[in-house]
Amino acid sequence: MQFNQIIDISIPLSPSTIVYPGNPPIQIEEIKSEASKSIISKITSGSHNGTHIDAPRHGIENGKSITDLPLEVFIGPCRVLDCTSDTGAVTSETLKSKNIQKGERILLKTSNSKRGYDVFYPDFVYLSPEGAKYLSDIEIVLVGIDYFSIKQKGSPDNRPHTLLLEKEIPIIEGIDLSSVEEGEYTLVALPLKYVGMDGAPARVVLLQ
Ligand SMILES: [Zn+2]
Q: At 52, which CATH number?
């Protein structure tokens, strides 16, 4: 694999990282051992904090866990789509204009990337249920979005999660695409190997 640049699209993890309301926050306690003169830390965190990947089990009863998913899905060609003109939700019309093919890895860059991750805002841009249906019908293999949830906050309509997850399309949430242009990249997004989990944090990079 040849590349000139590694673009880190993961967000920093620390006790000050904002989390989706209701999720357990990140807590880090440094423990010094006098005996061994070493430092270890105790980390507490929800499984959907920071840059992370949703496994089918997150939204589908008896769905596959993060360690049931094949690693091939998480490494390979991907396309960042500029959806920044969509306010509210990424629409199926926008997606239809992007000529998406079966088997693609798709990252949605929305106007969320302009607002960043300094404070939580509930009116983030999400994927419309029709957009989720469009992507799951095409059978892309992975999707990502630049905020903590792919579905509208507070909406009872769970389809952006369920339509993708029942097709075993993992969802990367909490990526920062502020410095990334629409185009083709190589994605490396490896979720930590927490056995049987509904989701796991990941270091996500684009190679160019
Ligand atoms: Zn999640």
A: 3.50.30.50
d(CA 171, CA 152): 15
| Type of residue found at 69 | L
Query: How far apart are the CA of 170 and the centre of ligand 1, in A?
Result: 10
Number of domains in the chain: 1
114 assigned to some structural domain: yes
Are 80 and 183 in contact by the 8 Å Cβ rule? The answer is yes
Q: Average model confidence (pLDDT) for the chain?
A: 96
pLDDT tens, residue by residue, 46-85: 999 999 999 999 999 999 999 999 999 999 999 999 999 9
| Prediction pTM value | 0.96
Helix (H) or strand (E) holding 95: helix 92-96
Does residue 1 form part of some domain? no
Asked if 48 is an active-site residue, the reply is no
Is 198 in contact with 66 (CB distance < 8 Å)?
Answer: yes
Q: Is residue 60 part of a domain?
A: yes
1 pLDDT exceeds 90? Answer: no
Cα of 23 vs centre of ligand 1, distance in Å, is 10
Query: 136: how many CB neighbours lie within 10 A of its CB?
Result: 20
